[in-house]
Design a protein that fits this description.
With 432 residues, this protein is mostly beta strands. It folds into two domains: 278 residues, no CATH class; 137 residues, Nuclear Transport Factor 2, Chain: A (Roll). Helices cover 10% and strands 40% of the residues. It is built from five helices and 25 strands.
Length: 432
C-alpha cells in the first residue's frame, strides 16, 4: 500500500468511519507528514468549469508510473438550488486528477477535461499550458463508470482514499512481474470507486460498486476497514421497501481483464471490474431474536433451522419440530443455507383449531435456490402470546407450525408463490 495524504479545509469526521480506518490513517499520517497537495498560484476553482467547486481536499497519489506526483481532488457539480433567500448545494461529488506531464508528451489522453490555456505556477514552478492536465475521472460519459459520481450531495466529510499496489499474475504469461497501481475511494460505507491508469492515450479507468444498505468484506467488517490490498470479494446490500428491514444482497468478485500484446498493459476500459452474483434476501442489520412479522420469522428460521427452535410453535410435539427442521436442513448445501429469492406473506388470518384450543394462522410462501435447483415452500404460522414478566406487557408472537415443500406443476421448474398466494398485492417481498 502506498500512503496517501488528504489536504485542505478541515471537515467533521464521521465517527464510525474514523474508527474503522484508524489503523490505516496512522500509517498514512506517518508516510505523508508535511505534504499539502500542489502549491498553485491561483485557486483551483479558476481552472474548473464555472459551476464546479473544489471541496477543499487534496490527495497526493502516483499511479501513472512517472516521477511526478498526481493530485486527486473532489468537486461538486450540477449546481446550487436557490429557494427564497437561501441556497444549497444539490449536486453530487465528482473526482479529478491534476497531473504534471512533460511538454513533449503526446497524445493528450481522452479523459482530460479541458485544455489549460495559460501558463500556471505549480509548486513554485512555472509550467506551460500543455504541461498541466486535469483528468476528469467522474462525472464522465465513458461506459463502465457505475453511478457516475463518487459521493452524493453533502457527503464530503465521508470520503476517504487510499492508494494500493498489487502484483499481477496473468495465467497467459503476458504480464508477469507487473505491478498494478490503483486508488480506492470510499464514500461512507456505501460506495467504492476504483481508479487506475489505462495508458497515455486513454488516461484513467474507473469502476464502481454501490450498496445503499452498506458494503461489507465479511459479515462484520466494512469494506474499507484496515485496507492494505485490493478487495477481492465484497458484498453490497440494497434495502427493500419492507416491514422486516430486509435487503437484497449481492456478492462482487474482482476480475482483471488485461489487454494482450501489442496493446499496453491495463489499456482495456474494463481492466478492473467487479462481477455481481445474487445472494438473495437477507436481514439488513442481522436477524432479530424473534421477528414480529411473518416473513421475518420464516427468513430467520431458514437461515438457522437447528438453532432457532424458539421460532417453532411451543405446543408442537418433538417429532413435528424435528420434521420441520429436517425439511429445511435438506435444502442446505453443507454449511450454506439456501438462497432466498422471494418471501410472500398472506394478507389474511384464519381460525385454526388445534390441540383443543382455538388459534389463528397465516402463511408465507418462499422460493429458494438450492444445489438441486429452485424450490418453493409453504409455511403456516400460528399466533401466540409471550407472557410478560414483572410489569411488562404480554408480547404478540408468530410461531412456525408447519413447513411443506410445494411440488412443481407439470412443465414448470417450481411452484410460483404468486399462484399459491393468489393475490398480486399480497405483501410480496421478492428479489428481481
Amino acid at each position: 500500500m502506498r500512503c496517501v495524504s488528504a489536504r485542505g479545509h478541515a471537515t467533521r469526521s464521521n465517527i464510525k468511519l474514523f474508527c474503522a480506518l484508524l489503523s490505516a490513517f496512522w500509517l498514512l499520517a506517518a508516510c505523508n507528514a508535511g505534504q499539502r497537495g500542489p502549491n498553485l498560484a491561483q485557486p483551483i476553482d479558476d481552472l474548473l468549469p464555472s459551476d464546479w467547486k473544489h471541496t477543499g481536499a487534496w490527495y497526493d497519489i502516483n499511479i501513472d508510473d512517472d516521477e511526478a506526483e498526481e493530485y486527486l481532488l473532489f468537486v461538486t457539480y450540477d449546481g446550487i438550488a436557490i429557494t427564497g433567500s437561501s441556497q444549497a448545494q444539490i449536486g453530487p461529488i465528482g473526482a479529478l486528477i491534476l497531473d504534471i506531464v512533460p511538454a513533449s508528451q503526446e497524445p493528450t489522453p481522452q479523459d482530460v477535461t479541458a485544455t489549460i490555456t495559460a501558463t500556471i505556477s505549480v509548486n513554485d514552478q512555472t509550467l506551460s499550458a500543455n504541461e498541466v492536465q486535469l483528468h476528469r475521472i467522474l462525472p464522465g460519459y465513458w461506459p463502465g463508470q457505475g453511478q457516475g459520481f463518487v459521493a452524493g450531495p453533502g457527503e464530503e466529510s465521508s470520503i476517504s482514499a487510499v492508494q494500493l499496489t498489487s502484483e499481477v499474475n496473468d495465467p497467459r504469461g503476458f504480464w508477469q512481474n507487473t505491478t498494478l497501481k490503483e486508488v480506492a475511494i470510499f464514500a461512507g460505507e456505501t460506495r467504492m470507486t476504483i481508479i487506475w491508469q489505462r495508458g497515455p492515450e486513454l488516461g484513467y479507468g474507473v469502476t464502481q460498486v454501490y450498496g445503499p444498505g452498506g458494503l461489507l468484506r465479511s459479515a462484520d467488517a466494512p469494506a474499507f476497514a484496515n485496507l492494505v490490498e485490493p478487495i477481492a470479494t465484497l458484498w453490497a446490500d440494497t434495502p427493500l421497501n419492507d416491514r422486516n428491514m430486509l435487503c437484497l444482497r449481492s456478492r462482487y468478485e474482482r476480475v482483471l481483464n488485461l489487454a494482450e500484446p501489442p496493446a499496453l498493459p491495463f489499456s482495456n476500459i474494463d481492466a478492473i471490474s467487479y462481477v455481481e452474483s445474487p445472494e438473495g434476501i437477507k436481514f439488513c442489520h442481522g436477524a432479530p431474536l424473534h421477528p414480529y412479522y411473518p416473513e421475518g420469522v420464516v427468513l430467520a428460521y431458514l437461515q438457522n433451522p437447528q438453532g432457532e427452535e424458539r421460532l417453532l410453535f411451543p405446543n408442537l410435539d418433538p417429532d413435528s419440530k424435528s420434521a420441520i427442521a429436517d425439511t429445511i436442513q435438506k435444502l442446505w448445501n453443507g454449511d450454506t443455507p439456501p438462497r432466498v429469492d422471494a418471501l410472500l406473506g398472506y394478507q389474511w388470518w384464519q381460525p385454526a383449531p388445534a390441540e383443543g384450543e382455538d388459534y389463528i394462522e397465516t402463511a408465507v410462501c418462499t422460493t429458494v435456490q438450492t444445489s438441486n435447483g429452485t424450490q418453493s415452500l409453504l409455511f403456516r404460522l400460528r399466533h401466540g402470546v409471550e407472557v410478560g414478566t414483572g410489569a411488562h406487557l404480554n408480547s404478540d408472537r408468530l410461531f412456525i407450525a408447519n413447513a411443506s415443500l410445494l411440488p412443481a406443476p407439470v412443465g414448470a421448474v417450481a411452484t410460483d408463490c404468486r399462484t399459491v398466494i393468489g393475490d398480486a398485492d399480497s405483501g410480496e417481498r421478492e428479489a428481481p
